[in-house]
Amino acid sequence: MPSAESTQASAHEPDPVRPTEEDGVAAAGSELIGGPVGRHALLGTSWWTPVRVVALVAIGVFALGLVQKAPCYQGAWFFGASSQYTKACYSDIPHLYQGRGFADGLVPYFDKLPGDMPYLEYPVLTGLFMEVASWLTPHSGSIQHQEQWYWMVNAGMLMVCAAVIAVCVARTHARRPWDGLLVALAPAFALTATINWDLLAVALTAAAMLMWSRGRSLAFGVLLGLATAAKLYPVFLLGPLFLLCWRAGKWRDFGRALAGAVVAWLAVNLPVMAFATDGWWQFYKFSHDRGVDFGSFWLIWAQNSSDPPSTDFVNTTATLLVVLCALGIAVLALFAPRRPRFAQLAFLIVAAFIVTNKVYSPQYVLWLVPLAVLARPKWRDFLIWQACEVAYFLGIWMYLAYTTSGDAHKGLPTDGYHWAIAVHLLGTLYLCAVVVRDILVPERDVVRRAGGDDPSGGVLDGAEDVFVLGARTPSPRHVAHVGAPQVEWGGRSTAAPRDGSP
């Protein structure tokens, strides 16, 4: 039996946030499964804890994504180029099994490939993931049979990554475990999870965010370094962290995070850099030399211009645009009336990179999903953005079907695809806009309205500012939790609303 002390302590702990009480869309959606959660489900005695439910839902929805790829698994990957697009089930995984030498037992980065691509064009940790999947794939039977096995093995490994992401998000905000359902139920997440190997980097990044929320800055750095060894985008999170630690004076924690990231990245990359330099460099060379490609506003410009921009011009200009966005985020971080939450700035910098980049593959949405949930766990805004991403997901495959179907012209013509790109860009910018609004008007931040300062901020949570360029505002102080939790914002007491209004 629990002790009197533990019972008394738990009585003073705030209840977990219930989305069906604070979010109108979540409440309406819950009617499909019997309505908002009831009193008996909140007692904490059931095996069905929020984290377990989130993990199981994530696995279930991931499995539905595998079913969506079934037409390709049954033959569309192998018989005809356009059918894998018209059925919207394309994946890089089976094609690269043979195309990058895994079928022939070639070692990534060390063995040269026979085709146009001299070496594997992926970061080292992703290459290791691909190689491990190859070891687990039966190298017998027809090449089609092997490719099917390779995709299935990768799908099983990626399913573990998906569950890790959902659980990490559910546990990052201690009072908001049900926000993990936004990740688990995200339609674009299920549709794009097995297109490529991005989930590995996303899982490591989500785990890093969890470690930071627990105050484990060194573990955060190590995981972020590993994530950057799998994909480039996680390194951008160090920029917002630097700004927030500067504002809060948490230099020691930032130093530990930076050191952990550098050491972890070097530990993975140095052996390949030293013994297979050309192979290691291929990812960075390919990223630099790659021309304007699918999904970017640069493609709209290039396909509607008689003098399309050169690759060098796009590289330089895209870099400048990212730098300008980073400067804008820095100004926002240092001038905001309250120190922004870490997840908010992390989402903004990754979104800035995605919007300005010269290519947007449909699986890049995976980078943003956990960051979006931590930055703005509002079902309405999240679903608006997801609808835009699903529209783009369908648009790119229909466009590729159009370009590969010859005179039949099945699919979406160029102008239609440009509209799909615009929808994706507008959806991402919309979510950026509401996150910026939350930073400028903290009372509208659904995370802070429920009580607390920065639940994912670790040592930043509730810390006083030591360097502010704008007007200094006191850190929020919890007041008595009677009914709805309240937080003081610069002298004004605001009760967390129950109706989910913005």
TrEMBL record:
User: Bias category Basic and acidic residues: which stretches?
Assistant: 12-21
Task: Fetch the InterPro entries from UniProt.
Answer: GT87, UCP010361
Transmembrane stretches, by residue range?
47-67, 119-137, 149-170, 182-212, 218-245, 257-276, 313-335, 382-404, 416-436
Report how it sits in the membrane: Multi-pass membrane protein
What keywords is this UniProt entry annotated with? Cell membrane, Membrane, Transferase, Transmembrane, Transmembrane helix
User: Per the record, which residues fall in region Disordered?
Assistant: 1-24
Q: Does the UniProt entry include the keyword Thylakoid?
A: no
- Which Pfam families does this chain map to? GT87
Tell where it localizes: Cell membrane
Biased composition range(s): Polar residues: 1-10
**Which domain of life does the protein's organism represent?**
Bacteria
- Mainly localized where? membrane
Keyword Aminoacyl-tRNA synthetase in record? no
Q: Which protein family is it in? A: Belongs to the glycosyltransferase 87 family.
Q: What is this protein called?
A: Glycosyltransferase family 87 protein
**Which species does the entry assign this protein to?**
Streptomyces kebangsaanensis
